[in-house]
Amino acid sequence: MDRRGHVYDVFVGDAKGIEISGLGRYRAGRSRFRGLRFLHTHLRGEELSTDDLMDLALLRFDLVVALEVLPSGLPGLVRMAHLLPRDSREKLYEVLEPLSVHELDLDFHQFIESLEEEFALSAKSSDILDGRKRALLIGVTTRSTEKARESMEELSALAESAGIEVLETIIQRRQTIDNRYVMGKGKIKEIFITSLQLGATLIVFDRELTGSQMKSISEATDLEVIDRTQLILDIFAQRARSREGKIQVELAQLKYSLPRLVLKDDFLSRITGGIRARGPGETKLEIYRRRIKERIDRLNSDIDEIVKGRDERRKAREKTGIPVLSLIGYTNAGKSTLLNSLTESSVFVENRLFATLDPTTRRLRFPREREVIITDTVGFIREIPRDLLSAFRSTLEELREAHLLIHLFDASGPTFREHISAVNDILQELALDNIPHLLVGNKADKLTDEEKQRIEEELGCITISAIKKESLGVLTSLMEKEIWKDA
Ligand code: GDP
Ligand code: MG
């Protein structure tokens, strides 16, 4: 029923439910009402169901009304629910006390007007107060929940460093991954309700999603949906400082979105002029794809230019004969801290994943007038899709000129073994595994002596603490030995 009280559409369901269709194309958006009331019957006088409340929230009805049908066919109780403004944090909807149909004297016009006013006010204030995204993190796994939990902890740290507020972490084990929703439809509904209760605006999946999975889940929950890789790319985008860094991130983002564009015709029609008509959608998609490809070509050639410039600088550097040493390792291992301690400079250090995106280069002096150039690099991370790695090629190319790689890992973390092998895999993939490297466990200040010894023996490495300069002597003399071993 519309605001004037006219019947807008009629749906016939059965005792189990009603399928509402045909409203989808008139989506109202998160902060506006649809201007329609949804009136339906309940045959056993049941309370408003989860489905009713989902319809209320997803379709942004002014009001959901369930009218009890008595066995005699006469109307019994009326149950109603309406949405609440976003800043009433705990609840997103209000279910009113059931009334007999004869007691119903709601002035609907006044009611919806004041509700809309409240919404308008709260939309304004929450825009200012709360720029942060509020997310549910979801891990769906066919393997052990133990592994999934570790991965979720990392995802959570990633989300935090992207400035996202993590509301809840949900792990689900399944036999198979659902093509459409990743998980079961029932679970999706549950997640939707949780998102309403907690006021989530975003879902982050700990796995790669296809374009159509993103679309289905986003439609079923009315939330923004991203996956692990997109989150990582977002962080990269926030962190990129140099022109080169920015180009690389944009390239990676475009490469990632290209195969996922398939079904986002809603978005596409918006950017191409807002015509929602069906037929030309295909062509719009093609136009958009072509534009992206052109942009990718353009960025690639920009990078070629940058690499060329760097080659020249590198040649100049090679002429000086100064050896180059690169710090590599999983993100947050302490590479920038170590560079600072070694060279007493102050490269951007932050207890966030990916604080460093752009390579930083410093000189490090050794006794006997010896010196090396030492570079800090972007942190590695597992499950970076192969084709994205290539987007970061110019940063990673920098490693190719290194005479020695210092592979730093956080020896105090629970998952350093996985991190070490993730880094080794990437080195292999980039054919950098032939460059000599030193494995170094960092953050030894957080370990007991026994723990330190056990790790050193197990991995044949040394341990240091980048924040304690006096612990770096062993490392610098090892570096010296490695670099000038012929001398
Ligand atoms: P990167 O991502 O590898 O460059 O890591 P950062 O150098 O940015 O360091 C990440 C975090 O680890 C920062 O909070 C550092 O202060 C901290 N950190 C680095 N080295 C040590 C260390 O030896 N001991 C301890 N306790 N913390 C460290
Ligand atoms: Mg760093």
List keywords for this structure.
487 residues, alpha/beta, six-stranded mixed sheet, five-stranded mixed sheet, 15 helices, elongated, binds guanosine-5'-diphosphate, binds magnesium ion
Explain briefly what this protein structure is.
The protein has 487 residues and is of the alpha/beta class. It has helices at 50-59, 108-129, 145-161, 185-198, 211-221, 228-239, 243-257, 265-271, 281-320, 335-343, 386-389, 393-397, 416-429, 449-459, 473-483, and strands at residues 37-42, 63-69, 75-83, 93-95, 99-100, 134-141, 165-173, 202-205, 224-227, 324-329, 360-365, 371-376, 404-410, 437-442, 462-463. The longest helix is centred in the middle third of the chain and has 40 residues, at 281-320.
Q: What's the helix and strand layout?
A:
Blueprint: E1 37-42, H1 50-59, E2 63-69, E3 75-83, E4 93-95, E5 99-100, H2 108-129, E6 134-141, H3 145-161, E7 165-173, H4 185-198, E8 202-205, H5 211-221, E9 224-227, H6 228-239, H7 243-257, H8 265-271, H9 281-320, E10 324-329, H10 335-343, E11 360-365, E12 371-376, H11 386-389, H12 393-397, E13 404-410, H13 416-429, E14 437-442, H14 449-459, E15 462-463, H15 473-483
Parallel strand pairs: 1-2, 6-7, 6-8, 8-9, 10-12, 10-13, 13-14, 14-15
Antiparallel strand pairs: 2-3, 3-4, 3-5, 11-12
Helix pairs in contact: 3-6, 6-7, 7-9
Could you explain how this protein is built, in words?
This protein is an alpha/beta fold. Helices cover 41% and strands 17% of the residues. It has helices at residues 50-59, 108-129, 145-161, 185-198, 211-221, 228-239, 243-257, 265-271, 281-320, 335-343, 386-389, 393-397, 416-429, 449-459, 473-483; strands at 37-42, 63-69, 75-83, 93-95, 99-100, 134-141, 165-173, 202-205, 224-227, 324-329, 360-365, 371-376, 404-410, 437-442, 462-463. A six-stranded mixed sheet has the order 11-12-10-13-14-15, with helices on both faces. Strands 1, 2, 3, 4 and 5 form a five-stranded mixed sheet that branches. The radius of gyration is 29 Å and the shape is elongated. Guanosine-5'-diphosphate (GDP) binds at residues 329, 331-337, 349-351, 355-356, 379, 442-443, 445-446, 465-467.
